[in-house]
Amino acid sequence: MDIRQLRAFVVLAEQGNYRLAAELLCITQPALSKQIQALETLLGARLFNRGRQGAQLTASGQRLYPEAQTLVGQHMQFQQRALRVVKGEAGRLAIGFGLSSFHLAPQLVASFRGRFPEVAVGLEDLPSERQYQLLLRGELQIGFVRLPVNAPLQASALLCDRLVLAAPTALALRTETLMRQFNSLPLLQLTPKRGRGLSDQSLRFIAANQLTPNVVQQAGDIQTLLALVAAGIGVALLPHSVTHIAPAGIDILPLSGEQTEWQVGIAWNPQQPDALRDNFIQVALAGAPGDKPPVL
């Protein structure tokens, strides 16, 4: 059964006149008659009585009309939605983010949803290394990740994050003496499995500044590290972004020297064409703070 036949049936039922129905369908009257006859043959029943009063529905036509009207309406809705999906104006977008983008990612998603309200967005907190894997597998369309990324992934920088030392307020550690006292402080670390990027950044900072840290404990997530710091167990090297989630009882102290900063941006897989993802990238780059950074 051709959807054109159903549309012809619905329009003729509504107009009750072959000439008017043909004009609305942008076809000739003979073509309309042919479509109606083909549908009647397929169904094995007359749908219209033809006479001086025009085309009037038979009993069978009256019973089938509501269902045909629903199907035609659904077909039109599907066509309209399909066009929006193809243009990247509807659908679902899976996005990964981390602590460094804890504040920025929701802002950009809200801005994007303001322009494309028919898009459903899924946000998931994931380490950058895990996001790289999911982007390559097509399970994420966008990742807010630590840069740089490896080919075939592509990325654009949005902001910089930097290392800080989270210390118990009761320790009363002074910033100007921090580096001199660092080796004597009980250091808490994130397990490399949970945060390879932060772990490697911390190791590079330690090596660049020729430090010998006193590691006393590891934790599986940053929230646990912060809880341990607040409890006075030790200090921790963390991204400055922890200021968004740090509990009371913690001082955030800036660090100086080499290997204290890194870039954070959005990454995607250009090998998988996706208009919806590309629309998000445009919104994100337009809404990012500061100068627009280059694509990496």
TrEMBL record:
Record-stated family: Belongs to the LysR transcriptional regulatory family.
GO molecular function: DNA binding; DNA-binding transcription factor activity
Organism in which the protein naturally occurs: Serratia grimesii
GO terms under cellular component: protein-DNA complex
Lineage of origin: Bacteria, Pseudomonadati, Pseudomonadota, Gammaproteobacteria, Enterobacterales
UniProt keyword RNA-binding, yes or no: no
Entry protein name: LysR family transcriptional regulator
Pfam families registered for this protein in UniProt: HTH_1, LysR_substrate
Keywords attached to this entry: DNA-binding, Repressor, Transcription, Transcription regulation
Domain HTH lysR-type: 1-58
